[in-house]
Amino acid sequence: MTDEDYSGGCQCGAVRFYVKGRLGEASICHCRMCQKAFGNYYAPLVGTGEAALTWTRGRPKYFQSSNHVKRGFCDNCGTPLTFDAPDGTGLAIGAFDEPARVRPVVQFGVEARIAYVDHLHELPGEVTEADIVNAPYLADVVNYQHPDRDTAGWSVRGAENAGHWRPREEGV
Prior knowledge:
Strand 6 (about 60-65) and strand 7 form a beta hairpin. About 5% of the residues lie in helices and about 30% in strands.
């Protein structure tokens, strides 16, 4: 990939995208609608700007969240993917394969910002496995999420996990 090539998708791999070209301004939105749509404190988004967005596997399903905006998400796993407004499409930064390449430069909806968000970096930090005593299942977790790259083959998992997607690749 070049500096102006990006790929990404949902956590199950049913929906994938490719972006070629310069992205627009990356932002974080704290408005209550974005909080609910992302199930989080805020929504990190980047406009596609003049870049070309191509859906390479599947397509998002959409929810009309207001009279002007619809939000795209994976119908299979629920991952938030897009913010479609009259001025263009924004993509969820966390859905990119390399989200660190897309750095937010502005915050919107600060009137709804949850106050403690500004202090999250002050909390103690631990690696995931540090909680193994209280969460012993962490010792043998098998990750079924799509890897942070494109893959060729996909199949629906067995009946015990009906409705979930899994790559055909070994070790993924």
